[in-house]
Amino acid sequence: MKRAVKSWPSWVLLVMVVAGLLAVGAARDAAPRSPKERVEDISKRLACPICEGESVFESRNADSDAIRVEIARQVDLGTVSDDQIINFIAQRFGSKVLLVPRATGIDALVWALPAAALVCAVVGLGVAFHRWKLAADTIPDDADRALVADALAADASPDADEP
Question: 46 and 67 in contact (C-beta within 8 Å)?
């Protein structure tokens, strides 16, 4: 019992640190970006419609060049946000060009379910290991000692070898 009381502050501290880091990371505001940086950021979030495993930023395919030109044109207009540009490209080429999935519908489930399964598995293992540890820490009582003494006496008797 003493050990459990001593370890809970460290868990609380760990949770607070992780929550603080997540809050800072989510709320961090980047400095104003140049049009070139916006084009690069957007093209890194889109997959080449022809190439396997390459972003529009990395690919030198003609389709990727056309997408980069369209992104630059829309950024130069300055009237649309990055998400609107990405949605426009996704409507034109299909959702297969999205490297970062949408946060709604089936796309969100495809990314969230494996992460949720991993968290559940880790929590389940933690609970199982905790129960096993508690079961291993039990102190034998008089009945347990008598059972062991009887088993040892049966093994030590000369009649134990005969069938």
Answer: yes
Residues 6+ apart with CB under 8 A from 55: 43, 44, 45, 46, 47, 48, 99
62 dihedral zone (left: phi>0; alpha: psi -120 to 50; beta) = alpha
Domain membership of residue 50 as a residue range = 31-100
As to burial, measured by CB atoms within 10 angstroms (0-12 exposed, 13-18 middle, 19+ buried), residue 61 is middle
Number of domains, the chain = 2
pTM score over 0.85: no
Residue 162 lies in a domain: no
Q: What percent of the chain is predicted at pLDDT more than 90?
A: 17
Is residue 35, in this structure, part of any structural domain at all?
yes
14 within a domain of the structure (yes/no): no
Residues 95 and 112 in one domain: no
Write out pLDDT tens, residues 133-154: 887 777 788 888 899 999 999 8
